[in-house]
Design goal:
alpha+beta, two-stranded antiparallel sheet, 4 strands, single chain
Length: 120
């Protein structure tokens, strides 16, 4: 009863991600909600470990969480003329070069500027 909403969410994510019966596909929507930014690298690490055992789809609006992942593992979903497209930003040489030079900071900046979607 004394746990915060964020603590409860964190426990739920870890319960799922460390489960011996992790389903073949697991989808997590905005795991950053209610969490302190310092917890995001821990959540990302748990996701990376779980992704070795399951297809994992994580939806986020957090540049801090997104920057914890490898650039090659990022896919952006966008709606274009009534249909959903999946964009792999690592396939764009200019973005890949920027991320190689500046790391996670570049991923966060590209995310907030919509450059990951290829619209700017």
């Amino acid at each position: 009863a004394d746990l915060s909403d964020g603590s409860l969410r964190l426990l739920a994510w870890f319960t799922l991600l460390t489960s011996r019966t992790l389903p073949p596909l697991a989808c997590i929507d905005e795991p950053e909600l209610g969490l302190h930014p310092r917890a995001l690298p821990i959540v990302a690490g748990a996701c990376k470990v779980a992704s070795a055992r399951s297809q994992l789809i994580v939806a986020t609006h957090s540049p801090q969480l997104l920057s914890e992942f490898d650039f090659e593992d990022i896919a952006v979903m966008r709606r274009e003329e009534g249909r959903v497209e999946i964009v792999r930003p690592a396939s764009r040489a200019a973005l890949r070069t920027e991320v190689e030079e500046f790391g996670g900071e570049a991923i966060a900046r590209l995310f907030t500027s919509d450059e990951l979607e290829g619209r700017s």
